[in-house]
Amino acid sequence: xxxxxxxxxxxxxxxxxxxxxxxxxxxxxxxxxxxxxxxxxxxxxxxxxxxxxxxxxxxxxxxxxxxxxxxxxxxxxxxxxxxxxxxxxxxxxxxxxxxxxxxxxxxxxxxxxxxxxxxxxxxxxxxxxxxxxxxxxxxxxxxxxxxxxxxxxxxxxxxxxxxxxxxxxxxxxxxxxxxxxxxxxxxxxxxxxxxxxxxxxxxxxxxxxxxxxxxxxxxxxxxxxxxxxxxxxxxxxxxxxxxxxxxxxxxxxxxxxxxxxxxxxxxxxxxxxxxxxxxxxxxxxxxxxxxxxxxxxxxxxxxxxxxxxxxxxxxxxxxxxxxxxxxxxxxxxxxxxxxxxxxxxxxxxxxxxxxxxxxxxxxxxxxxxxxxxxxxxxxxx
Length: 381
Hints:
The protein has helices at residues 2-28, 58-65, 86-96, 115-126, 145-151, 172-194, 209-213, 227-237, 258-275, 277-280, 289-302, 306-327, 336-354; strands at 45-51, 73-79, 101-106, 131-135, 157-162, 165-170, 204-208, 241-244, 250-255, 359-362, 365-370, 373-379.
C-alpha cells in the first residue's frame, strides 16, 4: 500500500510540474507578430552565418537573410572549404542583392575542436559593427529578425538568443523532431528563463562585440564542447543574463529519418550532460514515460484499470502541450500527439546514452564529447 501511494504521489507531482512548465513558458512566449523597429537609435548590425552544404531550404533561408527590415546591416557568410557546393548559391545571392552589404569568407581557424566555432572566427574578426549576430544557416529569418533580438536586450543582458521552432515537417519522423524542438525543448528553455536560469542556444545569438572581446573574444566560446554552453557560463560569470526573444524563430525541417533524429538528440543530450550535469540529470523526468510508469504501478496496486489510467495520464500530459503549440502558432497536426508519445519513448534511451562515452555525429564529423573538451575523431562526410 505504501508503494502504491508513493507511486501515485510521485506521478501526480511530475504531471503537475509538467503543467507548471507549460504555464510558465506560455507566460514568456508571445504568438508570432511583426515587431516594429525601435523609435530610438537603430545601430548597425553584423550577421555572421556559418554554412556547410546545401540543404532543402537553403535558397529560401538565403533570400530571407537579404530581406531584413533594418536600416543598416552586413552579412558575412563563413565557409570552411572553397569546394563546398553552397559557395555558388551564396555568391549568386550576393550578386542578386547589391544593396545589401555582404561578403563570403572561406577558411578555418582552428581555435577549438568545435567546427562551427572555427568557421565563425574569421567572420567575427571581420565584423565592422559592435552588435553581432551568430546565426545558423538553417534559421528562417523573419523580416523583423534583428528587431526581435534587439528588443530582448536589457541593461543586465549579456546575450540574447532564440531556440529553433520546427516547421514544415515532411513525414512522421520530422513531426517527431517538431515534438522535440517545440513543445519540449523550447518550452523548458523558456521555463528556465522564467525561473532566472537562462541558457544560451546557438541557433541565433546576439552579442555586444566589445563586451565579448573584452572577455576573451569569440575564442572564449571554445572553453566548452558547445559554444552555447560556453556562452552561458561566460555570461553568468559576468553577472549578466541570457535573454530569449519573445517569439522564437523557425527552422524548416523537410524530411527527417529516425537515424538523423537519434544522432542529433544524442549529441545534444551528451553536450548537456558534460556541460551542465546537475541540470541534465532530472531530464529523465520531463517526458511522460516516468509519470506513466509510476501511475501504472499505483493503479496495479490499487486494482484500478490500467488502460483507463494510461489514457488519463496521456491526456493530462499531452493536451496542455498541444494547447501550448496551438496558442503560440507552432506546428500542430492530427499526428502531433502520436509524435509526442514516440518522442517520450525515445527520451529515456537518449538520456541513458548521454551518460556513456563514445562518438556522436556532428555534421559529418565523428566526435567524442568530454567535459571541457571535444575531440574530432575523423572526417566521415
